[in-house]
Design a protein that fits this description.
By secondary structure, the protein is mainly α. 84% of the residues lie in helices and 0% in strands. The longest helix is centred in the middle third of the chain and has 74 residues, at 2-75. The protein is rod-shaped.
């Protein structure tokens, strides 16, 4: 009878220990999964941010080039008009 009660007590303690340990392992596994998902989201955010930075840099460079071209046209208006005739002027009618 004593062995029976000792077996029941040891079995109950073993069950409690296993249940508690399994719960801790499950929590640790869930935590690891959530951490992996969060890391994946951060990596995707970094990738999108890097792409956005590259696009903004390209747009800034294109805008800078456009401003430089317009500035050059304003500085040297006669050089462009001299190459292809008078730019923006109407043709003069022939004298009779």
């Amino acid at each position: 009878m004593r062995g029976f009660f000792l077996g029941v007590i040891v079995g109950a303690l073993g069950t409690l220990w296993y249940t508690r340990r399994a719960g801790e392992l499950q929590i640790a596994r869930r935590f690891g999964e959530m951490q992996e998902k969060a890391n994946a989201v951060l990596m995707e955010s970094r990738r999108i941010l890097e792409e956005t930075r590259q696009e903004l840099a390209a747009a800034l460079e294109a805008g800078k080039n456009t401003v430089q071209q317009r500035t050059e046209r304003l500085r040297h208006p006669t050089s462009e008009a001299g190459e292809g005739g008078q730019a923006g002027s109407e043709p003069t009618p022939p004298a009779s």
